[in-house]
Amino acid sequence: MTEVERLLDCLEEEIRSGKKAVFAGSGLKQVDEFKCLEYINQIRNMLPSTLSEARVVLQDKNDILDNARGNANAIIADAQRQAQMLVNEHAIVAEANRAAEGIRNEAISYADRVVNDTYKYLCTMTDDAYNKLNEAVQAVIATRRDLDSKMR
Fold first, then answer.
1. Contact present, 36 and 11 (Cβ < 8 Å)
2. What is the SS3 assignment for the chain?
3. CB-based contact 15:36 (threshold 8 Å)
4. Residue 50: partners with Cβ closer than 8 Å, 6 or more residues away
5. Which tens digit of pLDDT belongs to each residue from 93-115?
6. If both were cysteines, with which of 5, 18, 96, 121 could 29 make a disulfide (CB 3.0 to 4.6 Å apart)?
7. In this structure, how many other beta carbons lie within 10 angstroms of the beta carbon of residue 39?
8. Is the dihedral of CA 105, 111, 112, 114 positive or negative?
9. At what angle do helices 33-150 and 3-16 cross, to 10 degrees?
10. Does the pLDDT of residue 138 top 90, yes or no?
11. Of residues 25, 45, 21, the one with CA closest to residue 33
């Protein structure tokens, strides 16, 4: 119990222990004025230092709360920055994957065209070779017939 609380208890006891005033209405009591005023003066003398201490404690509390709020806001801001960075990284990775898929599809399409063009070229070449060979065989057959007709 603090000294102020002790003095308040003493003042309260003095008031409660006072005798009822004669010919007074209800609730009026005779108290030792000197004692009551002495308690009040002692309390007043203590209050400034107690109030100053309370103000310091209150200011310390407010400073601690402000500091905690500042730290909390900094943590939240950092978390939001990190979350945004992850979102951006995810978007970059997703865009890179889309670009890679597009490049892959273009490469597959190009490879298919090259293979088809190569097959067409080979078909044309084999057709030309077949036709040339067929012409040569026909020329050989014609020459052979010509030779056979002259030899009999």
1. yes
2. CCHHHHHHHHHHHHHHCCEECCCCCCCCEECCHHHHHHHHHHHHHHHHHHHHHHHHHHHHHHHHHHHHHHHHHHHHHHHHHHHHHHHHHHHHHHHHHHHHHHHHHHHHHHHHHHHHHHHHHHHHHHHHHHHHHHHHHHHHHHHHHHHHHHCC
3. yes
4. 2, 4
5. 999 999 999 999 999 999 999 99
6. 18
7. 21
8. positive
9. 130
10. yes
11. 21
Q: Is the dihedral of CA 98, 100, 102, 108 positive or negative?
A: negative
From 1-5, 26-30, 98-102, 121-125, the region with the lowest mean pLDDT: 26-30
Question: Which tens digit of pLDDT belongs to each residue from 23-77?
Answer: 656 667 788 788 888 888 888 887 777 777 888 899 999 999 999 999 999 999 9
Structure tokens that stand for 6 in this block: 């002790």
